[in-house]
Amino acid sequence: MTLEAVLSRIDETLPDSCERLMELMRIPSISTDPEFDADCAQAANWLVQELKSLGFSASSRPTPGHPMVIGRHTGPGRHILFYGHYDVQPVDPLELWARDPFDPQIEETPKGRVIRGRGAGDDKGQLMTFIEACRAWKDVHGTLPGNLTIFFEGEEESGSPSLIPFLEENSEELSADLALICDTGMFADEVPAIVTMLRGLAKIEFTIRAANKDLHSGMFGGVAINPIRVITKILGGLHDDQGRVTLPGFYDDVAELPEAVAAQWQGLGFDHAAFLGGVGLTTPAGEVDRTPLEQIWSRPTAEINGIWGGYTGAGFKTVLPAEASAKVSFRLVSEQDPDKILASFKAWIAAQLPPDCELVWTGPNGSPAAVMEITDPAFEATREALSEEWERPAAFVGCGGSIPIAGYFKDILGMDAMLVGFGKDDDQIHSPNEKYDLQSFHKGIRSWARVLERIAG
Amino acid sequence: MTLEAVLSRIDETLPDSCERLMELMRIPSISTDPEFDADCAQAANWLVQELKSLGFSASSRPTPGHPMVIGRHTGPGRHILFYGHYDVQPVDPLELWARDPFDPQIEETPKGRVIRGRGAGDDKGQLMTFIEACRAWKDVHGTLPGNLTIFFEGEEESGSPSLIPFLEENSEELSADLALICDTGMFADEVPAIVTMLRGLAKIEFTIRAANKDLHSGMFGGVAINPIRVITKILGGLHDDQGRVTLPGFYDDVAELPEAVAAQWQGLGFDHAAFLGGVGLTTPAGEVDRTPLEQIWSRPTAEINGIWGGYTGAGFKTVLPAEASAKVSFRLVSEQDPDKILASFKAWIAAQLPPDCELVWTGPNGSPAAVMEITDPAFEATREALSEEWERPAAFVGCGGSIPIAGYFKDILGMDAMLVGFGKDDDQIHSPNEKYDLQSFHKGIRSWARVLERIAG
After folding, report:
1. Which CATH architecture has domain A2-198+371-455?
2. CB hemisphere CA count around A239 (13 angstroms)
3. CB within 8 Å of A62: residues ≥ 6 apart
4. pLDDT tens column, A213-259
5. Class of domain B200-254+300-367
6. Taking a C-beta distance cutoff of 8 angstroms, is the pair A434, A121 a contact?
7. Which partner from A153, A192, A219, B414 sits 20 to 30 angstroms from A90, CA to CA?
8. Do A306 and B228 touch (CB under 8 A)?
9. Which CATH code is given to the segment(s) B2-198+370-455?
10. B198 confidence band (pLDDT: 50, 70, 90)
């Protein structure tokens, strides 16, 4: 049985696979900060070399932002495209990391061994599961599996500004029969999942400006408008007492969950107390009439991701600042239109602005939610492959995060996407001390070997 | 006429006086930041040498914080104590300064020559007016005027933590018949003023903590409480639609302005449009049923001086932060008790805190408002001296800022204080590009010579 041979090969070469992943993690490819542009390019080149060494024809393609990586193996069967991203989140607050985020290592923990460092779980560890599965396959079969295109981007954590034009310009090359996207997680510690419902994301930053300079609150306090007072007053009204977003029209295009899906989710036995307890919380903070699973998978949200203004250093400064700023994002579901939501937000803010204040908007962008068609037999085949590897029935689930690429693949390339990933809830992605379980990495590689056996070639 | 001789001497030696002031301004004596502790000590030592060179017996006195400077000249007449502070505000945002804040220079501006740099107006330029007046006096008379104590502190911009114990421990040495405090401004560009009503100040910093780490809004958005949402919701309710502070009991101890004072203020013809226009504003933002002069002089306020939480760097990070913080201060009037106001604020915040959130409080401190008795004939003598120098009738006015020292002098040393200063509304104290008009410095020195002629010796 060649599948068994591939799985054995994966087991035997796991230490080498880990070493390659950590080599990639040592490159600080933070896409959101221009200081790390060269590192992003370096990560892309590293992947190109990796793919070439496996027999892919591969290249790094320049864009106005960070490069795309494309690898191609022509073979028999359905054309499958695999997607991941090599860029990572910023690392601040750096002081909360127990070690250098870009000097990864394998650590023993009470819950098993983990690979620790920025990008371990999001998304370098995940994309390497597929590369390592291809490597073992080739070692055993002498050739890569099926008919494959590899597609890695380097702007996923910074809103993918180059993605849409790139997909449009390279649609012939990239239009496959099915896309595999590896940027999601397990449903539970040992329960694999295929995501069929993804929230969209709309985000925007704004500054409220008032006086032409910072003022002294002794001289101007009381009579001069304080932009922090304005921004707290406005943003403090973004949610009502029931946890609902107050933006006019916000829920207009939100569909109720189909009864069958609601029932399936009910059956998952989601333990929200454990989910929240893991991060030190007890009480769901979303809409009071929705289950916690609905709150994170199928209901839209508004979050203030950053706020700043005035004196924030040590000690005290009785300043009336000239400006205050915030970064706000919305997780979107169903047919919510990111542009419409952001326009509504901008109008809502503007309508509440007192005299003497002006607004400056930065970087609005967004992507809609995606709901997959699961009639393609590859979905059921993959569900079986995952269930076999993890010895637990795999689930079709929702995902609170936004993976806009799934929507773009559908809209621009006309291709369905299957989202399979091996992240855990405690991976601390986007946070200090990010990790990826060694089990996720190992069984992730094995899972892809099983999936390829069923759907490739 | 020896007064004329002293005034002439002041005119002739003005360039030297400016050079000495700029030498003091080159010492970055930021009291609120421990990094500048040595600079504060250096500024104190510089002043000690200056006072000694004039014939004062002077010394720098250690405290648990920054040193106090005391100079003493024993002579005939009422014992007068002069107070100023040698510490300065932090300089951030540094990028808004047109030049190094600690490399002062004299600049030509459309409104006349100014001394530009941190501390020019608050309070180094002001305290040097008195020293330079003493210098010219001594040059002409051969001796210092009257019976003088000089008292400079170095913690005024950081809440004066050492002041009360120091006053208590040195009350015999520091208890004079009258205090002169030079840390205030002119009423208008050419209208000198004696402040007889000062607002108090209560300030506090707090942090709201929720999850035990930063979370990813894709995974936790909607279900996990966001401390920025909590802090904006709470602080957004600090003022009502009429500009009133909503804190329970906030106005309980606020007296209405006596009719006579209100009438005098009405007569000052305060041009609030020009006052606000100077900083790019048009509309008074305080209590809608109060005049702008009441809003800054005789009404209490609540201001958010700083707020921060989440990701505030370049680009976007869809984080749900673990905490959010703010610095809040209250300007107090009449009989408002700082401790009572801060206790009310803390209770008000705590009462609105949702589940899973905890509060951490930092650095509460405060000082009450002060209202001077102006029956001492020195007040009227000083008003005459100022009116003569500036050729405009000097006014008895209120002051929006808090100069707690006036209250401490009264409470601890049993001594009344007369607040005279030469700052202008556009001095940008506490802001980038702080300046002191050369006219303020020059006529300030001359004013003190006239005041000393009338009340010393």
Report:
1. 3-Layer(aba) Sandwich (3.40)
2. 25
3. none
4. 999 888 898 899 999 999 999 999 999 999 999 999 999 999 998 78
5. alpha beta
6. yes
7. A192
8. yes
9. 3.40.630.10
10. confident
